[in-house]
Specification:
270 residues; alpha+beta; Fructose-1,6-Bisphosphatase, Chain A, domain 1; D-Maltodextrin-Binding Protein, domain 2; 2 domains; seven-stranded mixed beta sheet; five-stranded mixed beta sheet; 8 helices
Length: 270
Amino acid sequence: MTRFGSTALHERVVAALKEVAGESIVPRFNKLRKEDVRAKTHPADLVTIADEEAEQRLTPILRGALPGSRVIGEESVAADPGLLKLLAEDHPVWVIDPIDGTSNFVNGIPRFAVIIALIARGETIMGWIHDPLTGKTIAAEQGAGAWETAIAGDVIRRELPAPPFALKDMTVALHPRAFAKSLGKFARNLRLGSAAHDYWTLTAGDMQLLAYRSLKPWDHAAGVLIHREAGGHNAMLNGMPYRPALPNQEWLLLAPNDALWREAAEMAER
């Protein structure tokens, strides 16, 4: 870790994630009241008091950790979509998903996480995914690799293991709209209800292929970087790299290597 004084920055972000998740998110798991949850754009698009409080608490911490930086989050963008324009500017921008997998969180399913990405000049420079229930964090820095920080503070380099040789032995999370005719070739198709846990499972080697149609930066900027720095290959189905600052991108595909990415991309129906 070398950029932005990044060792100290990484430690500060991890400390903030543990503190905010431990105080604003975990105590509310399985204890939400009816008035603590509301729908935003549609009934399945939920936000809770924990989402809002976590984002509000993380915002000044991240801004203070890197002078001159800006901060946007899923909930602040919901209130002011114009904030997304900050991603294309020169100054570094923190992007927060205070609870990825809010529906899981609301329904007592233990698959949710906090995601933070640091973006500069339209590219993801650093990224973090924190699991509040285990206290673990996976993170990456552009050009410096990916790693996992355990609750005790131990840091372990994260590298993708070799995938199974045959498609029939692979676990995937592929969007049925593009891969409906190919899903029978794989062992199973997972839907975890959390992009953060999809990326966690992918980089642990428990999933081999992952595809997303809709690409919000708070869901994907950190995970794409972590996957790539762990040794994976990812790109849009048109072969272009994912760029968190570009609006209206669709169809991202992630694989353990370039060869498997190409094989999977040929299966897609677009």
